[in-house]
Design a protein that fits this description.
This protein is 43% helix and 15% strand. A 7-stranded mixed beta sheet has the order 3-4-2-5-1-6-7, with helices on both faces. The two termini are 13 Å apart. It binds adenosine-5'-triphosphate. Belongs to the ParA family.
């Protein structure tokens, strides 16, 4: 059984891509077959895995979704790239923005990505979708395709307001489009454990949401190594295997798998 997890927060720069890469590779290191889907036209996930010019890639998520819309025949594995750390990637680039705009008049536009994922999921244990920082149609497609949503929250600003908007969208999707959608959990990222501010944010998130939503036990520390790894084309496990961020993402991978049990 494959589990599909959307990694979403409409706030930018909170660690969605970093979490997609390192949770994905963390799960692969623990014996799972993993597909990462870049659902952000910025192509940050694609670039983070070493494809530094996403706009030069021919077949992307946009191509696949266009094929579904036009009911064109295609191989379900078209466009999938293999990364040396044992994960697969369906890349994205700027074409996804154009697609999002042109979907306005498409019938059943919320379920286009799901139609594809239902086919490809037979080949994987986990599919992680790195969402863009907006709650537009591509993100809705990701939420409709997913079994659960993992929400990274940067522990450096007051996140309560932004989270309410996301939770509203999740509730709407659950009501109208995907009754089985769960919240995998809120993950605190870029936590500076030396400061009281980080502790305050953490306490605030737990107080505000902890009664209804899982807050992951592990949180991701702030670290220059984590910031550097985005430009390296590999995971934190390859770049800084003994560092605290590596240990945190290994813990997160275990926690996510424990949810299945
Ligand atoms: N634990 C960390 N410590 C320090 N820097 C980090 C950490 N995690 C991520 N970063 C850096 O913070 C920036 C934002 O991270 P990331 O790209 O993962 O966020 P995002 O939510 O995917 O952004 P966007 O909304 O633009 O897609 C990046 O430069 C990344 O390298």
């Amino acid at each position: 059984m494959c589990k599909v997890i959307a990694i979403a927060n409409q706030k930018g720069g909170v660690g969605k891509t970093t979490t997609s890469v390192n949770l994905g590779i963390g799960l692969a290191r623990q014996g799972n077959k993993v597909l990462l889907i870049d659902a952000d036209p910025q192509g940050s996930l694609t670039a983070s895995l070493g494809y530094i010019e996403p706009d030069d890639i021919g077949v992307t998520l946009a191509t696949i979704m266009m094929n579904v819309i036009n009911e064109e025949e295609f191989e379900v594995t078209d466009g999938i790239l293999h990364h040396q750390e044992n994960v697969d990637l369906l890349p994205s680039n700027i074409e996804l923005s154009g697609l999002e705009v042109s979907m306005a008049n498409v019938i059943s536009r919320e379920v286009i990505m799901k139609e594809y994922i239902e086919e490809i999921k037979k080949q994987y244990d986990y599919i992680l979708i790195d969402c863009m920082p907006s709650l537009g149609m591509i993100t809705i497609n990701a939420l409709v395709s997913a079994d659960s949503v993992l929400v990274p929250v940067q522990a450096a600003y007051l996140p309560v307001k932004g989270l309410q908007q996301l939770i509203k969208t999740i509730t709407m999707v659950r009501k109208r489009l995907n009754r089985n959608l769960k919240v995998e959990g809120i993950l605190l990222t870029m936590v500076d454990f030396r400061t009281n501010f980080a502790k305050d944010i953490s306490a605030q998130v737990r107080k505000e949401y902890g009664a209804n939503i899982n807050i992951f036990d592990c949180s991701i520390p702030v670290s220059v190594k984590a910031a550097e790894t985005s430009a390296e084309g590999r995971s934190i496990f390859a770049y800084c295997p003994k560092g605290k961020v590596s240990i945190a993402y290994e813990e997160l991978s275990k926690e996510v798998q424990a949810h299945e049990n």
